[in-house]
Amino acid sequence: MPSYPPAPDRRSLLKLLAAAPAASALGGLAATAPAHAVPAQTARASGAVASGAVASGIVKSLPSEWFTVRGTNAEARFDSFADTGLLTPADRFFVRNHTSTPVLDASDWRLTLWGDGLHGRSPVHFTYGQLRDLPSVTRTALIECAGNGRSLYTSQQGEPVTGTSWTLGAVGAARWRGVRLSDVLRRAGIAHDAVALQPRGLDDPYVSGGVDYGRVRRPLPVAKAFDDVILAYEMNGEPLPYDHGHPVRLVVPSWVGIASIKWLGDIEVSARPLTSPWSTDWYRLFGPAHPSGGSDPITVQTIKSAYELPFGATLEADRVHRLTGRAWSAHAPVRSVEVSTDGGTHWRRARLLDTPRRDGWVRWTVPWRPHRTGPVTLLSRTTDAAGNTQPERAVHNTQGYLFGAVVRHPVTVA
Ligand code: MTE
C-alpha cells in the first residue's frame, strides 16, 4: 500500500502520540477517527516530517520564493508559476488550512458513510485498500479558494472585506486520481430520496473567537456528487501529500475550494437538506448587493487571469519583454485573453499556449516593448466559451469571495 514519504515510522508515531493530543472522536463515530492523527507542528518538532520555512501547522517546506505565509495558510506566489507547466507541482501548491495538517496513516484510515439517506441506515466503512480496489479515474482540475483575490476588493476597489488577504495565488492545478464518489455512494446503498451529503475532515475542530465550530464540513448536493466529484488519493501521480489531504480528499471540480474536503473521515448521507457553519456563516455572499440574510451557499468559482510577474516588478525600457500569464474560468473553457499595457486604453489579444479546457487554465503570452519610463498598469481580461468576460469591478461582498474583476497590475519601466 503506498504511503507518502517521509512517513513517520511506527516508533516515532508512538512517541508523537504520547506527546500530542489524541484526535478527538467524531461525534458518535469514534471508530472512524484515525489512530495516527498527529498535528503537523508536533510531527515536525520530533523530526518525523520534513522541515523548512514554516507556517504553523503546515508540514511541507515553504520557501519564500514560492510561498507567502498567511496565518495557518500558505499562498503560492503567482509570479513563481512562470517556470511551472500546466500542472502545479505538489511542493508549489497553495495550502489552505482552517487548523493544521494532521499526519494520517493510510493503513489505519477508513471512510464512514452514515445517515438516513442510506438503505438500511447503518454506517458503511471503506478502508484505503478497498477504495484503491475500486475502478479509478484520473482528471485534471483546479482547486481555488473562494477568497482567492480577496485583497483586491480593498486594494483596487477600496472596499473592506474580512478573511485571509490572498492576492492571486490561492489556486493550483493538479492531476487527481481516485474513485468516483458516485461509485462509493452506490456501493454504500444510497437511497432514492437522499438529497444532501456532508463530507467532513479529520483535522482538528475549527475554533474561532472562543466558538468551537466542529470539524470542517460542508453540505454537497447529491446531484453534484453524482456528476463529477472524486475521492482522490493521488496528486500528480504520487500519493496525496499530507498538506493536501493524505490519504484521501474530495475533489469537487469547478466549485469553490472549501467543497474539496481534505483528510476525509466521514460523509453523512441525508434525506433532508443539511447545513454547517461553512454553508450558513461563511461561503455565502453578504452585503448590500445581496439578499438580506445572504445569498445561497456559493458553489461555482469565477473567472480570472493573472500575470506571472510580481506586483511592482521593474522592467527595462526599450527591450522586448515576453510577458506571460494564466487565465481560467470555472464556467467554461477560456476563449480568449486580451491585455492592455497602457492602463486599459488599448487592448490586444494574447497568444494562448494551451488548448483551453474546462476545469483547467491556459498559459498566455504577449510581447511588450515599453518606451517611456515610469509607472505603468498592466491589465488582462479573460473571456470564456460561455460568453463570460472579466468585468471592471467585482460585486462586493463582506467576506470577499469570488473576486473576478480585471486586475490592475502595477509595474515600473526603468
Ligand atoms: N478540508 C479540511 N478538512 N480542512 C480545511 O481546512 N480547507 C478547504 C478545503 N478543504 C480545508 C479543507 C479550503 S477553504 C480550500 S481552498 C481547500 O481545501 C484548499 O486545498 P489545498 O490546501 O490542498 O490547496
Automatic annotation (TrEMBL):
GO terms for molecular function: heme binding; molybdenum ion binding; molybdopterin cofactor binding; sulfite oxidase activity. Residues 320-402 form the Moybdenum cofactor oxidoreductase dimerisation domain. Residues 1-37 form the signal peptide. Pfam families: Mo-co_dimer, Oxidored_molyb. Residues 98-278 form the Oxidoreductase molybdopterin-binding domain. GO terms for biological process: sulfur compound metabolic process. InterPro entries: Ig_E-set, MoCF_OxRdtse_dimer, Mopterin_OxRdtase_euk, OxRdtase_Mopterin-bd_dom, OxRdtase_Mopterin-bd_sf, TAT_signal. Keywords: Metal-binding, Molybdenum, Oxidoreductase, Signal. Its cofactor is Mo-molybdopterin. This is Sulfite oxidase.
